[in-house]
């Protein structure tokens, strides 16, 4: 099986970018080990702190953030980082070319129940001559991403990665510490009978999403004329991985549950990297009204509605929003 560096070199991926991706993965290998140790390493449970978004931080949120932050900043390959668990961007090497936004631990409500979690990352080039301390270097649409991926810490540790030449899966060989290519061209099937949404929010959705989901649930007695199945892992990494493997539609739509927080998922380190992976595998990623990767961000922790997955099913859902 082929290792990650030669696969990327063959693609013509710049060496500095390969080194940066390998740096992210070095941290992810350590995270994979810590997560795998579970209660044995004393990392389960919550801290007494909240992040800037008002969410209680799990011990693993803090630990994984620190691991990624330290290794990235020490490497010299990043000009700046942005993280879910950092209030502000953090400056790195002024001479480095790339910036990285990451969700160090996605699905952290799953940590204490030994269920799926992952790390999501997005890499962009910094504008020439930009000040590493200037947060506006992150205010670029997702279509500028040069690489995006996640590492899913499941029964096996799997990396989904794109550098703009398709979406690939690599599986961590834990005996040798190397990521090996296990799927060269991930392709999201265009049609699906599977949807993923947190249905407990149903009464708070907008009419378009209410109507769409009602029609799925009506199954063969409704306008769709066939039955649909539902899955919800409560970790976007797990749900998106399933969609990449066997198709589906995943959505965290706008809702009115908390007027101060109409959307849940964050653009820079959740929606954008997942959108690139999905599009590179032939799927669609939209807010309901626009392509996610076309959004011009105006804040580091900006949130957006997300509807992504199988092409034909996402298009059907978008028709309800017209
Ligand atoms: P995080 O753990 O990084 O805060 O992200 C959790 C996100 C996402 O992964 C998942 O799809 C969603 O929150 C689950 O939300 P609910 O708990 O509302 O189902
Ligand atoms: Mn997350
Ligand atoms: Mn997180």
Please tell me about this protein's structure.
With 322 residues, this protein is α+β, with helices and mostly antiparallel strands. The chain has two domains: 4-183, Fructose-1,6-Bisphosphatase, Chain A, domain 1; 194-320, 3-Layer(aba) Sandwich (D-Maltodextrin-Binding Protein, domain 2). The chain is 29% helix and 25% strand. The strands form four sheets. Strands 4-3-5-6-7-8-9-10 form an eight-stranded mixed sheet, sandwiched between helices. The protein has a five-stranded mixed sheet with strand order 12-11-13-17-15, sandwiched between helices. It starts with a helix and ends with a helix. The mean pLDDT is 97. 2,5-anhydro-1,6-di-O-phosphono-D-glucitol binds next to strand 5. One manganese (II) ion (MN) is lined by residues 61, 84, 103, 105-106, 108.
Main sheet specs:
8 strands, mixed
Number of domains: 2
Which stretches are poorly predicted, pLDDT < 50 over at least 5 residues? none
Assembly state (oligomeric)? single chain
**Number of helical segments?**
7
Q: Strand tally, please?
A: 17
Structural class, judged by helices and strands?
alpha+beta
Quickly name the level 1 CATH class of the largest domain.
Alpha Beta
